[in-house]
Amino acid sequence: MRKLLALAILLSIVVLPAAAQRAIHPDSTVTTKHQVTIKGQRVPYTAITGTQPVWDENGKTIAGLFYTYYERSDVKDRSTRPLVISFNGGPGSASVWMHIAYTGPRLLNIDDEGYPVQPYGFRENPESILDVADIVFVNPVNTGYSRMAEGVDKDKLKEKFFGVQADVKYLAEWINTFVTRKSRWASPKYLIGESYGTTRVAGLAHELQNSQWMYLNGVILVSPTELGIERNGPVDAALRLPYFAATAWYHQKLPQDLQQKDLTDLLPEVEEFTINELIPAIARGGFLEEAHKKQIAAKMARYAGISEQSILQHNLDVPPSFFWKELLRDQGYTVGRLDSRYKGLDSQEAGVRPDFNAELTSWLHSFTPAINMYLRDELKYKTDVKYNMFGPVHPWNSNNNNTGENLRQAMAQNPYLHVLFQAGYYDGATDYFNAKYSMWQLDPSGRLKDRLSYKGYRSGHMMYLRKEDLVKANEDIREFIRISTPKKGQPAMY
């Protein structure tokens, strides 16, 4: 047993002894060897988990970022082997979600729809993209085990980490160091981000090109935010309706003629109404003719599964929080914000918003035990520092969020760069139709649209929690990598 353990665990820098386990060394690694069966093929791989420093402009270590890097071990030439750099969102969220539920080689124990099961734990992920790409999961400062360095003035350093622009700047530097240390400059490179992570990777695509001179092949936006693309007023109010319709369809709250349609047959009809009728109607505000207003409200009620009266009481601008409370009010349930398939129980049926996010509570229920067990027991990274599923990163400076425009510029400057949008129909926080809108508005010229693609899934914010969508979404990433990898010798030119 000791010999096997010695072969499996290679310590580049030994993690601190027990007496000092409440602090994370900013530069440490633990290496283990594993195998996973993906699509029926046995894939051997090396897992390196540890920390890599963040330095200030004077070369002083100011933080250590915790990461887990998976490298397929039977690959001899990595110059053509894609590297995927993965971030989650928040801001303030660890990389745990996509790490052990989407693209990584291990999958947490949940049922086929994503609900917690006991005993807690993890198993092989037969859908992981590790067969076609190496992956590193990165935790920004104060997420996971990432922390500011001991002895620094943490209050003064917050502005270096906690903001749209600061986040992108220091992470680009960190990626440069990581790629250099792992000898991956020749590899095709991809960024994947979920939720706020899409803001992060959209900004990073531009920052990496312009400050680190590192050019990407692809950016994958999972449940994307607004990316700094404006949509105030009538557009903001109207774009929610297709999501309302998807949720109402799932909970069987639509009229029979709509309910009997398949979801993907229904939604284009709702989208057309939203663009062609609802936005112009809301744009007229208080001067919209009363008869027309009632006509619009009636059609909205038909699609949203809530009453015409409640829609009129909101002047056609129904807040998502009210919808989550209202849709199943007659059954005594609320629906989840990030995934409206999930139901919640409030203290009373009255009110205008749910007491809690039913889906997030469910996810924390299953993810938290699994990641703590996995890192310690399988990857052998032992520490008494708390793994922050969500860490303190506020106040977050959201000024100058031009990440959508940054991404457009990166695409324009780099003919190799492709972008994939992935969104779940039941996500009410970063809804699927807003994701489509962002894609439409990303490049008003339309000159880049052949490198922009969109995929929708029958689940929520973390679409991969549903087994059927885990399979589909990972296949979509594989195909995206295939089409965005140029043929040998193909020049990056227009």
TrEMBL record:
Gene3D superfamilies in the cross-refs: alpha/beta hydrolase
One GO BP: proteolysis
Entry keyword set: Carboxypeptidase, Glycoprotein, Hydrolase, Protease, Signal
SUPFAM superfamilies in the cross-refs: alpha/beta-Hydrolases
Molecular function GO labels: serine-type carboxypeptidase activity
Pfam families cross-referenced by the UniProt entry: Peptidase_S10 (PF00450)
InterPro entries: AB_hydrolase_fold, Peptidase_S10
TM ranges: none
Signal peptide start and end residues: 1-20
Name of the featured protein: Carboxypeptidase
Organism: Pontibacter flavimaris
